[in-house]
Specification:
Length: 219
């Protein structure tokens, strides 16, 4: 049955490595056994690749089971995501509820904004992150931090203002830190786990003995 679950998997598409790392940690904690339930987290490597990834998916997989497509609810995500009317594709924005306001006046967020501000700040100044976790730097950033504006860009500007390089911030490690430090688990990830479980209930894994292979007689 585990092999059958893998063969009949439900895909959760994610934007990048940060999302991939976070979901592997948090979905399991939400009670979703990726192997048992046949859930595969697949990285489409950036919102700009989403449309082509879905187009390729339709051509290469038997399109008989659901797919969850996650995306950041930021300016790029809002621009690129268009519901194609495919009943087997469910689009899931991260975070589920708007957190920050963007330059065009719209509201939404990215992966980091699915967590609490405290978890983001604590994770940014862990010993393996910026300025080796210097508590004075953390205090200065906390004082200037505005939770209503995009969070990661504020961290990047702060690092550069103190002589560092924004490009040196390990965003994957930052997101792993957030996933490990958060308590309780943010609602966005609980809802995603619940969605995956509900879809699996609607499309249960069939035993290999129950799979209809009659079509092979015609080939």
């Amino acid at each position: 049955m585990r092999e059958a679950a893998k063969a009949q998997c439900i895909y959760i598409f994610v934007e990048g490595e940060s999302e991939e790392a976070v979901l592997h940690i948090l979905l399991e904690e939400c009670g979703l056994d990726l192997n048992k339930h046949g859930i595969v987290i697949a990285n489409y490597n950036g919102i700009g690749n989403l449309k082509s990834s879905i187009r390729l998916l339709r051509k290469t997989l038997s399109h008989d089971r659901p797919i969850i497509v996650t995306y950041d609810d930021d300016l790029a995500g809002k621009r690129e995501v268009r519901d194609a009317g495919d009943e087997l594709i469910t689009y899931f924005k991260i975070p589920q509820a708007p957190v920050v306001r963007f330059s065009d006046g719209s509201e939404g967020g990215s992966l980091e904004e699915a967590f609490s501000p405290d978890v983001f700040i604590d994770s940014s100044f862990e010993s393996d992150m910026v300025f080796n976790g210097d508590p004075r730097m953390k205090s200065d950033f906390s004082s200037a931090f505005d939770a209503s504006k995009p969070w990661f860009s504020q961290l990047a500007r702060f690092v550069e203002s103190r002589g560092g390089r924004a490009a040196s911030i390990n965003k994957i490690k930052l997101c792993e830190n957030m996933a490990q430090l958060c308590d309780p688990i943010p609602d966005t990830f609980k809802k995603l786990a619940a969605l995956a479980l509900s879809l699996r209930e609607r499309y249960p894994v069939k035993s290999p003995n129950d799979v209809d292979l009659s079509f092979l007689k015609n080939h």
